[in-house]
Specification:
The complex is a heterodimer. By secondary structure, chain A is of the alpha/beta class. Chain A has one domain: Thiamin diphosphate (ThDP)-binding fold, Pyr/PP domains (Rossmann fold, 3-Layer(aba) Sandwich), CATH 3.40.50. Chain A has 11 helices and 7 strands. Chain A has a 7-stranded mixed beta sheet, with helices on both faces. In chain A, α1 (24-37) packs across α8 and α4 (94-100) crosses α5 (102-110). The longest helix of chain A is centred in the last third of the chain and has 19 residues, at 181-199. By secondary structure, chain B is an alpha/beta fold. Helices cover 42% and strands 19% of the residues of chain B. In chain B, α1 crosses α2, α3 packs parallel to α5 and α10 (256-271) packs across α13 (339-356). The chains are: A alpha/beta, B alpha/beta. The A-B interface holds A 41-45, 47, 54-55, 57, 61-68, 71, 74-79, 81-83, 85-87, 103-104, 106-107 and B 23, 25, 49, 51, 53-55, 57-59, 61-71, 73, 87-88, 91, 95, 197-202, 206-212. β2 (63-66) of chain A pairs parallel with β9 (208-209) of chain B.
Chain lengths: 248, 357
C-alpha cells in the first residue's frame, strides 16, 4: 500500500506551538520535505533565530544551533567554515533578519557565504506580541504603531530581497508567498533551489516568504491570507531577484 | 628548542596555531591588530580559516557557530570590542561552547585610550554578559607565559566546554621578548566532540547547541549543573605564583604586566632590607583565595597594585576577609605605575600597618 501522506523524516513528531492559521508550520513542513528529497538529513545543520521560530530545533529532526537575536547568519558562517560539507540553513523572521540582524545578513550575502536562508516576513514582531517591524506596511497598526505606521516618523518598510540583490555574492534571491496552494508549491520549489545552490557551492541563497500573523493582525486565518494577497504582495512583489543562472 | 624574539600579539597568534586552532574570527581594534594580521598570513599555511567579520558582534557569533560545530576557535579584541562581544560570550557560556577569547586591554571607559590598562578585570571575571556564568580568565605576566597559557587555553576550553579568556594588556601585545614556542599539536589527537553539530551522520540522536530553557525547572537544573562545573574548575585549575613567600612580612598582590613592575619594586625594597614578597594570581577566575589563607599567619599586610582604580582589590579583600590589613595603589586610564612609586606605596603601607599594630 502506498502512503498518500506522511510526516517528512526531517520533522520530529512534536506538536508545534504556532498559532492556528500561521504559515510557519507549512514552511517547516516543505523545508523538511526538501531536506528529505535532497537526502540532506544527515548533513543538515539548522540555525534557529529569536522570534516565533525560536524553537525550530524542536521541530526539525536535524542538528541545530540556537542563535542570538539577528545573529543566525554569523552563526551559520561559523558552522559552514568548520563543516564545509554540511548543509547549513538559517530560519529567521523579519524582526530578526531585517531589523537587529541587518549587518549579519548583508555581510553573509556580501561574502557569498554558502548557506541557505529562509526568511519569514510577516510584517510584525509575532513572539513579543505584535510590535512594529521594519517590514510593517505603511499605515499598518501594531502595538507600537497604534495609529498606523507613519512613514514621516518611522520611514518606509524595508525590502530585503531588493536590497541584497545589489550584492554579487547573493546568487539566489527569491520572494514567494504561502497564501494559497499554488504559491505554497512555488515556495517549496524556491526552498529546494536555495538548498541546491548551496550544494553546488554557488554562494548565498535566500528565500523570503511573505507570511501572515492572524493573531497579531487581529484577523481570522482566511482574512489574514487575503490580506497577504491584497496588501503585502503589492509592496513585496514576488519573484526572483537574483538567479543562479545569471552567475553560471 | 630555540628562542625567538617576537612581539606579544604575534606570539599569541603562533601559540594558538600550534595549539591546533584552525579558525579565527575577528575585527580590527588597537592595540591588538597584530593578532589578526599575523593569523591572516599564517592560517593558509596550515589550511585554517581566518575571517575578518563585519563587527565584533558577528565575530563572536561566528565563534559560537564554529565552536559548536566542533572546531578549535579563537577571537581577539581589545576593551571596547570585548564589550561588544559580551552578548555572544553569555550565549557561549550558556550553550557550553569551547573557545578562546583574547583581550589586550586598553584604557576605558567608552572609547577611552589605546594605552594599556587592567580596567576590564570586573568585566572578565564577574561576567560582562548577562546570566549566572563564569569564564576561565588567565592573566599572563610575560610573553613566554602568554604563549604557554594561550596554548593551554584551548585544552581548558575543551575539557570544561567553557569559554577561556586570555587577559593581557596593550603593553603585552606590543612588547617584544624571546620565547620558546611549544610543539605543533597533532590535530588527530585532539579530543573527540561527540556533542558538536556536524550534521547527524550515523548518530541516533541529533545534536543541539542551545542556551534556551523555557521551563524554569529545566533552567534551574541547567544553571546548577553549570555551577557544579564552575566548582570543579575552581578545585582543579586555580593557579598563582609567589615570590619570597618564605620570609615576606608584607606582600604585594599583582597580576599581568603590573606584576613585572612590582618585581622591580621588590628588588629595590629588599636591597634596603625590607622583607617583601609577591602573590601573583595567574587564574583571575578562579581567583586563588586559598593562597591568602596560607599567608595570613605570616604576612602583616597586603598591598594590591593594579592598572585600575581597584578591581582585583575587591577579590583580595574578600579572600582576606579582614584577617590582615589590605591596601591599594593603582594607576588608570592608560598610565602605567612606576616601580619607585610602587616601592614608596609599600613603605607607606608598612608604616600604616606598623603604626596600627
Amino acid at each position: 500500500m502506498k502512503a498518500a501522506f506522511r510526516r517528512p523524516e526531517s520533522l520530529t513528531d512534536v506538536q508545534t506551538h504556532y498559532c492556528p492559521g500561521c504559515v510557519h508550520g507549512i514552511v517547516h513542513r516543505i523545508t523538511a520535505e526538501v531536506i528529505d528529497e535532497l537526502d540532506l538529513q544527515d548533513r543538515a545543520v539548522g540555525v534557529a533565530s529569536v522570534g516565533c521560530s525560536v524553537l525550530a530545533y524542536d521541530y526539525f529532526d536535524v542538528d541545530f544551533q540556537q542563535a542570538a537575536h539577528g545573529r543566525a547568519p554569523a552563526v551559520a558562517t561559523g558552522i559552514k567554515r568548520v563543516r564545509p560539507d554540511a548543509s547549513v540553513f538559517t530560519y529567521q523572521g523579519d524582526g530578526d533578519l531585517a531589523s537587529i540582524g541587518t549587518a549579519e545578513i548583508i555581510h553573509a550575502a556580501m561574502r557569498g557565504e554558502k548557506i541557505t536562508v529562509i526568511f519569514i516576513n510577516n510584517a510584525i514582531y509575532g513572539m513579543t506580541g505584535g510590535q512594529m517591524a521594519p517590514t510593517t506596511l505603511r499605515g499598518q497598526k501594531t502595538t507600537t504603531s497604534p495609529y498606523g505606521r507613519d512613514t514621516e516618523h518611522s520611514g518606509d518598510p524595508i525590502r530585503v530581497c531588493e536590497m541584497l540583490a545589489t550584492l554579487p555574492g547573493a546568487v539566489y534571491l527569491e520572494r514567494t508567498s504561502c497564501h494559497d496552494a499554488r504559491h505554497i508549491m512555488q515556495t517549496k520549489r524556491a526552498i529546494k533551489k536555495a538548498f541546491e545552490v548551496q550544494e553546488k557551492g554557488q554562494g548565498f541563497a535566500m528565500v523570503e516568504v511573505v507570511s501572515n500573523c492572524p493573531t497579531n493582525w487581529g484577523m481570522t486565518p482566511r482574512e489574514s491570507l487575503e490580506w497577504v494577497e491584497e496588501n503585502m504582495i503589492p509592496y513585496y512583489p514576488l519573484g526572483e531577484f537574483r538567479s543562479p543562472e545569471e552567475v553560471e | 628548542m630555540s628562542k625567538e624574539l617576537v612581539k606579544g600579539n604575534e606570539a599569541v597568534g603562533e601559540a594558538a596555531i600550534r595549539a591546533g586552532c584552525r579558525y579565527f574570527f575577528g575585527y580590527p581594534i588597537t592595540p591588538q591588530n597584530e593578532i589578526p594580521e599575523y593569523i591572516s598570513a599564517r592560517m593558509p599555511e596550515v589550511d585554517g580559516v581566518f575571517l575578518q567579520a563585519e563587527s565584533e558582534v558577528a565575530a563572536i557569533n561566528m565563534v559560537y557557530g564554529a565552536g559548536g560545530a566542533g572546531g578549535r576557535i579563537m577571537t581577539s579584541s581589545s576593551s571596547p570590542g570585548i564589550s561588544l562581544k559580551q552578548e555572544g560570550i553569555s550565549y557561549i557560556a550558556g550553550a557550553e561552547v569551547p573557545c578562546v577569547i583574547v583581550n589586550m586591554i586598553r584604557g576605558g571607559p567608552g572609547l577611552g585610550t589605546i594605552q594599556p590598562a587592567q580596567s576590564d578585570y570586573f568585566q572578565a571575571t564577574k561576567g560582562g554578559g548577562h546570566g549566572d556564568y563564569r569564564m576561565i580568565v588567565l592573566g599572563p605576566s610575560n610573553l613566554q607565559e602568554l604563549v604557554d597559557l594561550t596554548y593551554e587555553a584551548f585544552d581548558l576550553a575543551d575539557r570544561y566546554r567553557n569559554p577561556v579568556m586570555v587577559l593581557g594588556d596593550g603593553v603585552m601585545g606590543q612588547m617584544m621578548e624571546p620565547v620558546v614556542f611549544p610543539e605543533m599539536r597533532d590535530l588527530d589527537e585532539l579530543p573527540e566532540k561527540e556533542w558538536a553539530t556536524t550534521g547527524r551522520g550515523q548518530r541516533d540522536e541529533t545534536n543541539l547547541i542551545n542556551s534556551l530553557y523555557l521551563d524554569p525547572q529545566d533552567s534551574y537544573e541547567h544553571n546548577m549543573r553549570l555551577a557544579d562545573k564552575y566548582a570543579r574548575i575552581k578545585e582543579n585549575e586555580t593557579r598563582f605564583k609567589t615570590l619570597h613567600a618564605d620570609d615576606a612580612e608584607y606582600m604585594f598582590v599583582a597580576y599581568g604586566t603590573v606584576a613585572r613592575i612590582v618585581r622591580k619594586a621588590i628588588e629595590s625594597l629588599r636591597e634596603e632590607g625590607h622583607r617583601v614578597g609577591l602573590l601573583r594570581p595567574i587564574t583571575l577566575w578562579p581567583f586563588p583565595d586559598e593562597a591568602f589563607e596560607q599567608l595570613v599567619e605570616q604576612v602583616k599586610g597586603f598591598l594590591t597594585v593594579e592598572m585600575s582604580t581597584g578591581q582585583m582589590f575587591e577579590d583580595v579583600r574578600l579572600a582576606l576577609n579582614g584577617a590582615v590589613p589590605a591596601e591599594f595603589y593603582g594607576t588608570t586610564g592608560g598610565i602605567m605605575p612606576d616601580y619607585r612609586d610602587v616601592a614608596e606605596q609599600m613603605k607607606k603601607t608598612m608604616d600604616k600597618v606598623g603604626d596600627a599594630s
